[in-house]
Amino acid sequence: MAYSEEIKNEVKKRLQKGEKVKALSDEFGISIPTIYKWRNELKTENIKEEQVKDEDVVNIEMNEEEVLKHNAKEFREELKVQQLEQESSEKLEKRDKKNHYKIVIDYLKEKRHDIYAKMQSTDYVIQKEGISQWDKMERKIEKVEQNKDNAEIIEQLYDKIVNLQKAEMEYYNRKKINGEQSR
Hints:
Blueprint: H1 5-16, H2 21-28, H3 32-54, H4 57-70, H5 72-86, H6 89-119, H7 124-146, H8 151-181
């Protein structure tokens, strides 16, 4: 999912203050795995800051290797972000369009993860609903993978996902406001 830098920075700031991942997930309507990814990015950033302060090249390389071993996926994503920041705005625009496929697939897989939780329910009705949703999600993912080279379809799906994320964020913000007002 693509969240604004403002939201991402707010969540990171509150993570640094020690707020719980689950609470932030409920408040912002962001999946727990996404918040864990951001928390790991924070750890990577903090490690990098400490390494630069120490100016100890050997320790930097060792710490980076440890980060790669334990957080390989998060570290690669951080490096991608750094590489993107160094490219010209024209290249960024072209690359963003290519990344829309990845964002669409990641979103669907994240939703599939939520469905998996339903499938693990002890409530038969919820479990059955989860299984039905799982099958539908698998077909959607398969269709997206088949059409990954069709820029028009991927762009339409990307736009829908962005709109869904906005609607989810508005819903969770309203829910939060209504919850605070009822107190």
